[in-house]
Amino acid sequence: MLVLAAAALWGTTGTAASFAPAGASPLATGAATMGVGGLLTFLIAGRSAVRVLRGPRAVPLWVLLGGIAVAVYPLAFYSSMDRAGVAAGTVVTIGCSPVFAALLERLLVGVRLTLRWFAATVSAAAGCALLALTAGGGAEAGHDVPGGVALGLLSGASYAVFTCYGARIIRAGHSSRAAMGGLFGLGALVLLPVLAVTGGPLLSTPRGLLVAAYLAVVPMCVAYVLFGAGLARVTAGTATTLSLFEPVVAAALGVAVVGERLGAWAWAGTGLVLLGLLVLTVTVPVPPARRRASRRASRAETVPSQETGRS
């Protein structure tokens, strides 16, 4: 639920960014979102984030790699939406991130990919593809769709990288708030100079300041605190799959706020994403009789092995 709440807040980013002044650069929007928001996240974490940066062994390296990914992610993500359209940029980024995360977890820590995860990811990713192809605006609104898709893949990979390393930092004994504070504080060191160079049109009007403040505080600072708390309870692969809820929220807001129209195929894609989330999150209760039978069978299987050991 914590990760889903974070994803719901992330789903508001495209709609909020659409209210930015016409001359605002996507680099400035991304830098303001995770640069200022990353600084706030670091300040909320306080000394615990500093301890992560000074941690023993491999932890500082994990923070460095995750922090670089944090800096790359918003620049690529908002540029992807600018080139390929809000819907396509969002769904490509979020749709590919579970694949990258699963591969990273497999390579780094040997996490096995379950059939349930595979089914959920296939369903949700298929829904994302339908949204990208059929949601209102989408690819037709962009002027460099191949470049936007490529940037979406880069942002999805970056998201998976800092998710995986954030999870490793938490598993090493640090709190989720400390891990997020360390990663996003380091990313802010790169993003704030980018904002200083590109942020003139965005920060020179009251509307631009309001958009930047919302993006930095709500879908960045608040959402990633929630995400970090959820990441302490689930694997990085599960977290990135749950994040596929974001394009569903983005599509709904596009209809309700921006005035986009979704056809039958786009709604079918939304349904597939929700189906994937249900497959991943809903646990079917096991009847008590079956649980007792399973325990009896398990005990029966251990008796021969014990007798063999004694002989």
From TrEMBL:
Supply the name of the protein.
EamA domain-containing protein
Keyword vocabulary terms for this entry: Membrane, Transmembrane, Transmembrane helix
Q: Which GO terms describe its cellular component?
A: membrane
Kindly give the membrane topology term recorded for this protein.
Multi-pass membrane protein
Question: What taxonomic ancestry is recorded?
Answer: Bacteria, Bacillati, Actinomycetota, Actinomycetes, Kitasatosporales
The residue ranges of the EamA domain are 2-132, 148-281
**Region described as Disordered: spans on this chain:** 291-311
- Where found in the cell? Membrane
